[in-house]
Structures are given as structure tokens and as C-alpha cells.
TrEMBL record:
SMART domains: X8
Cell compartment(s), UniProt: Cell membrane
Transmembrane spans: 469-488
Cross-referenced SUPFAM superfamilies: (Trans)glycosidases (SSF51445)
Keyword annotations from UniProtKB, A to Z: Cell membrane, Disulfide bond, Glycoprotein, Glycosidase, GPI-anchor, Hydrolase, Lipoprotein, Membrane, Plant defense, Signal, Transmembrane, Transmembrane helix
A biological process term (GO) from this entry: carbohydrate metabolic process
Cleaved signal peptide residues: 1-20
Catalytic reaction list: Hydrolysis of (1->3)-beta-D-glucosidic linkages in (1->3)-beta-D-glucans
Protein name as annotated: glucan endo-1,3-beta-D-glucosidase
Highest taxon of the lineage: Eukaryota
Length: 489
């Protein structure tokens, strides 16, 4: 009898295992995410990695090689793309020893058994943006070459691919159609070297494509064309139909590659997403619409008219970042599919099957005290408040206050309170940070308006201040113990 049971059980196991294999991960079909750290209080990386696991996210792109972040991936099978920041390109491009040191200290070190699954190095980040005035024009490609050589001599050349995350502004079209696509004139020579390099090393062209920016930068842009669910505008080009700007943009790149003599280079989407605040087009409904359309398209494996094949894509971004530069626009701090504290913002289905639901939020987040800094209710002269508000906003994050944003409906008093609270929270709720020459006061009742759109946040303990939190907890436990002890006596 026992034996029969065992056999049945073994049979179950096989069934379970077979089932796992059937529905198990298929690397090409895993969506990736970008994880940036430009925040006053970033979440502890271990919590973030658990959140990635809880949501079955298996590909991550980060912007440097911070050991604090990388070590959190140790022993996981999550594929990691690391980055070399633009300010390191000069050093690495000029000296092969620097490149070898970089690989040794930032890559090889993490590759031991139970280490980190590093698969790509992005050399530079959007280094040819027009805003950089060509600052990285001479160093990006030599740095890529040096990193490739260094990886080769470390025996990692086949396993880890070298590329460079580029903004879609490296190409242009002279005809408003994909077939007019070509690399930008001012960077044509270096782009040709780069694509030749990618071709020879079987590395992907990594491009960031932002339909949101098309809409943001141009008031006449047909809104539906930024999404994937409305064929209201169709462009016909060379017998191909384009019903969304993403496909058209991607195929513009395909044409540019073709004209540069390297039509077969594979393409990966380095960043794609939609922000949820900071602009009239940036809200949860639009973000949900965009992601839902994009993920469905991605899951269909149909690609674009000229690249009808599965694609690898990294969503931008995992979490909001409250110290990101707002030079491109106030939306920059609101790209997360999760808010700063790891809460999912809107329903989404990362498998692209259109079964939208809330993702699993970060577990184990610890908030600072439930208290806020607001304008003192006795202050009646609002003009005296103005300089204090500007000061608070110059150092805190007021990007939710503009027209069309989540806190646009606040009164002048609400505005001031919001600004004061942002400054206060980002300074770890220090009493000093809620003075503003006697204009502000700390309250224990949540000042957020009741309609739910505009939230006056409470900051979190970041990974860096974990120890402090840990100490509090130990103290709490001790006190609890003593109390129990006393009760028992
Ligand atoms: C990467 O390696 C370089 C060269 O050894 C080193 O100076 C740098 O600190 C490393 N970067 C990080 C983020 O560890
Ligand atoms: C680029 O040039 C403009 C105009 O000359 C200047 O204002 C800006 O600061 C420069 N940016 C960088 C990153 O050098
Ligand atoms: C309000 O404050 C401004 C600036 O501090 C000051 O110039 C003005 O006299 C004040 N008005 C009143 C009515 O106190
Ligand atoms: C609140 O602040 C925003 C951003 O500074 C501004 O656009 C808006 O007009 C302000 N609202 C009021 C009522 O002062």
C-alpha cells in the first residue's frame, strides 16, 4: 500500500514538474524593468528584489554598478544589465587598464557561484542627447571597445554583451515616414562605428522610445497615435501600415540601420513607459492605457512591420524617483509603475494577457512617523508665505502641484502646506525642517484632500537608515519582554 502511495506521489511530482516547465519562464518572453535610484529615500534593495520576485520580473536594468544594489541580486536568476555612467566614459575610453579595472571591480567580482547574473553592460546612458552638446561624442565608442576587450580578456566576452543605451533622438526621418529614417547627421560617423561594432559582436542596439514625449512636445500630435488601441491615424509607408507611433519609430531605426549598412543588428527596447503625474497627459488612466496596449503587443510577439518578431523590452520605470532632474519636464519624477514606497499605482498585467490587476507591492516598508508639516492656520498674510514656498519647492518635490497634475486643485493654503510637507518629509521629518520662520506647524491628522487624488506623503526609512529602524525594533522587543516578565511575576 505504501508503495502504491509512493508511486502515485512520484507521478504527481512528475505532473507538477511538467506543468512547471510548460508555464515556466521563457527568457525572451520576460518583461524587463529599469530601476533607478535618484531618490532621497530609496527602498532597501533587498525589499525591491523580493518585490521583483513576487511579481515574477526576471530582467532588470540599472544605471551603474552600485555594490549595495548588485549584491541584493546575489543568488537570484534575475538577469541584470548594468550601466557605466557618462561621467566615467573619458577615463575608460582613454586607458585599457581602466577598462580592465572596471570589469574586475564591477563585474567579475559579482560573478562567483551564487553571485549576480550580469548579462549586459550599457556603456553610457543616452550619451548623444542633443542637450549634452556632443560632450560624449569622442569617448562613448572607444569606451565600448575597451570594455569589450576587457570582457574578452576576462573570458566573459561571449556571456556578457556590450551595448550603449541610446535615446531615439539619435535618428531622424526626412520624410515623416519610417522609410526616411537615418542616423542624425552630426553623429553619423560615430553611429556607423557603433552599429558595425554591435553587428560584429552580436550585441543588441538598445533604444529608448517614448510616445509620451511625442505627445508632450507637440500639442498637435494626435493623442491616440501615442497609444496602441486606436487606428484613428494610419500612415502608409512602402506598403506597411502604421497605427501607432511606437511601431513607426522602431521601423525608422530599422531603416537607419539598413542605410548604415548593418540591417541585421538586433534591437532591444531599453526604456519604454508612461508617467503618472507632473503633466496634463501624465496620469494613471493614460499610463494604464499605454502599458496595457504595449504589453499586449509585446506578448503577441508580432513586433513591428519591419521587425515582425518577439522583442525584449525594459519598462521605465520600476519606482518613482523624487530627485530626478526635472529639466525635461515635471513628469520626470513620476515614471514608476510603483510609487516611491513600492505601492502599485494602477492595474497592469506584465504577461501581456490583458488580465490587469494590481501588482504585488513592496513588503516590509517602514514609514516615518504619521505626521505632516503644514502652513500654520493662524497665518493670514499669504504674500509672506511665497518665499518660503519657493524655498521648500527648490529643495523638495512640488511636481504634483502644476496645472493638470494630481494636486492642481489645492488652494493657495493647500499649496503652501504641500510644499512644506515635501521639504519636511525629505529631511527625515526633522523638527528644524518644519519651521519656515514660524509659518509652519507639525500636525498628526492627514492633511490630504478627501477626494484621494492628491496625497501628502509620509517618507519611508530607506535602506541606508535601516540600521536605525532595526535598533528601534530591538528596543521595542526588549520593552515587550520586560513587560511580559513583569506581568508573569
Ligand atoms: C568600478 O570600478 C572602478 C575601477 O576599479 C572603481 O573606481 C569604481 O569605484 C567601481 N564602481 C563602483 C560603483 O563600484
Ligand atoms: C550646451 O550648450 C548650451 C548653449 O551653448 C548651454 O546653455 C548648456 O549649458 C550646454 N550643456 C552642456 C551639458 O554642456
Ligand atoms: C504681508 O507680507 C508682505 C511681505 O512679507 C508685507 O510686505 C505686507 O506688508 C504684509 N501685509 C500685511 C497686511 O501685513
Ligand atoms: C499652486 O502651485 C502651483 C505650482 O506652483 C501653481 O501653478 C498654482 O497656481 C498654485 N495654486 C494656487 C491656488 O496658488
Amino acid at each position: 500500500m505504501a508503495r502504491v502511495k509512493f508511486i502515485i506521489c512520484a507521478f504527481c511530482m512528475i505532473l507538477v514538474m511538467a506543468d512547471c516547465q510548460q508555464h515556466g519562464p521563457e527568457t525572451i518572453q520576460d518583461i524587463g524593468v529599469n530601476w533607478g535610484l535618484l531618490s532621497t529615500n530609496p527602498i532597501d534593495p533587498r525589499i525591491v528584489v523580493n518585490m521583483l520576485k513576487d511579481n515574477a520580473i526576471k530582467k532588470v536594468k540599472i544605471f551603474d554598478t552600485d555594490p549595495w544594489i548588485l549584491s541584493a541580486f546575489s543568488g537570484t536568476d534575475i538577469e541584470v544589465m548594468v550601466g557605466i555612467p557618462n561621467d566615467q566614459l573619458t577615463k575608460i575610453s582613454g586607458d585599457i587598464d581602466e577598462a580592465e579595472d572596471w570589469v574586475k571591480n564591477n563585474v567579475s567580482k559579482h560573478l562567483h557561484d551564487g553571485g549576480v547574473n550580469i548579462r549586459y553592460v550599457s556603456v553610457g546612458n543616452e550619451a548623444f542627447l542633443k542637450a549634452y552638446n556632443g560632450s560624449f561624442l569622442k569617448t562613448t565608442f572607444p569606451a565600448m571597445e575597451n570594455i569589450q576587450k576587457a570582457l574578452n580578456s576576462a573570458g566573459l566576452g561571449g556571456k556578457i554583451k556590450v551595448t550603449s543605451a541610446l535615446n531615439a533622438d539619435v535618428y531622424d526621418t526626412s520624410t515623416d515616414k519610417p522609410s526616411g529614417g537615418h542616423f542624425r547627421k552630426d553623429i553619423y560617423d560615430v553611429m556607423k562605428q557603433i552599429v558595425k561594432f554591435l553587428d560584429e559582436n552580436n550585441s543588441p542596439f538598445l533604444v529608448n522610445i517614448y510616445p509620451f514625449l511625442s505627445l508632450y512636445q507637440n500639442d498637435d500630435f494626435p493623442k491616440d497615435y501615442a497609444f496602441f488601441d486606436s487606428p484613428s491615424r494610419t500612415i502608409t509607408d512602402d506598403n506597411n501600415q502604421y497605427t501607432n507611433v511606437f511601431d513607426a519609430n522602431l521601423d525608422t531605426l530599422v531603416w537607419a540601420l539598413k542605410k548604415a549598412g548593418h540591417p541585421k543588428v538586433s534591437i532591444m527596447i531599453g526604456e519604454i513607459g508612461w508617467p503618472t503625474d507632473g503633466n496634463k497627459h501624465a496620469n494613471k488612466n493614460n499610463a494604464k492605457r499605454f502599458y496595457s496596449g504595449f504589453l499586449k503587443k509585446w506578448a503577441s510577439k508580432k513586433g513591428s512591420p519591419l521587425r515582425p518578431e518577439p522583442m525584449i523590452a525594459y519598462l521605465f520605470s520600476l519606482l518613482d524617483e523624487n530627485t530626478k532632474s526635472v529639466a525635461p519636464g515635471n513628469f520626470e519624477r513620476h515614471w514608476g509603475i510603483f510609487s516611491y514606497d513600492g505601492k502599485p499605482k494602477f492595474p497592469i498585467d506584465l504577461s501581456g494577457k490583458d488580465h490587469d490587476k494590481m501588482l504585488v507591492g513592496a513588503k516590509g516598508i517602514r514609514y516615518l512617523e504619521q505626521q505632516w508639516c503644514v502652513l500654520d492656520k493662524d497665518i493670514k498674510n499669504m504674500s509672506s508665505v511665497v518665499p518660503a514656498v519657493s524655498y521648500a519647492c527648490s529643495l523638495g518635490d512640488c511636481t504634483s502641484l502644476g496645472p493638470g497634475c494630481s494636486c492642481a486643485d489645492l488652494s493657495a493654503v493647500g499649496n503652501a502646506s504641500y510644499a512644506f510637507n515635501q521639504f519636511f518629509q525629505n529631511n527625515e521629518q526633522s523638527v528644524e525642517a518644519c519651521k519656515f520662520d514660524g509659518l509652519a506647524t507639525i500636525v498628526k491628522k492627514d492633511p490630504s484632500p478627501s477626494n484621494g487624488n492628491c496625497v501628502f506623503p509620509i517618507q519611508i526609512y530607506s535602506g541606508g537608515t535601516m540600521l536605525r529602524g532595526g535598533a528601534y525594533m530591538v528596543k521595542g522587543l526588549l520593552i515587550g519582554f520586560v513587560l511580559i516578565f513583569i506581568t508573569f511575576i
